[in-house]
Amino acid sequence: MINDYCRFKEASNVLYTQNTFDFDHPRCFIIFKMTVPTATLNSIKHLSINLQRELYDPGRPYRTTRSLRHDEWPHMWDIIAGMQGLEEIRVRFRFPVKGWLGWSEEEVLEPLWKVTRPMKVFEIDSRRASGFRDEETAERAPFKLLGAPPKYQA
Q1: What pTM was computed for the model?
Q2: In Å, what is the CA distance from 56 to each residue of 16, 60, 94?
Q3: Number of domain units in the chain
Q4: Whether 81 contacts 116, CB under 8 Å
Q5: Mean pLDDT of successive 10-residue segments in the chain (154 residues)?
Q6: CB 9 within 8 A of CB 50
Q7: Angle 34-8-36 (CA atoms, 0-180°, nearest 5)?
């Protein structure tokens, strides 16, 4: 029985520390968080959030789709900000950030500022991001904004 437990711990360590966990919806991440112990969540090093078009209706850019509640996006970032072992975060928007959830680009990106620990990689890939309002904000941002005008990417 002890050997089985040791094998489980060893496999669990490899699973959570050496793989990238990819989520396509904030709710999926929130549910995942509820299914794993805190120590396991804290051992994850690589996280990818790949937001799909289903969360955005280009015909009605200022209307929230039914699949996402307004509180889920900031709640997901509360959880991510508390993950102690996290080293790499990549977020990809497959739609325009501005107008998502009826929010401005600044409001969409605001919860990401909760991540205050230094990361090896913290990138936001948005093909149509307008960028930071000034160079100082770009330098202070905990993340790099890809796809924004080169002047204020950080």
Answers
A1: 0.80
A2: 30, 8, 9
A3: 1
A4: yes
A5: 55 77 92 92 94 58 59 94 96 76 83 94 81 75 77 51
A6: no
A7: 5
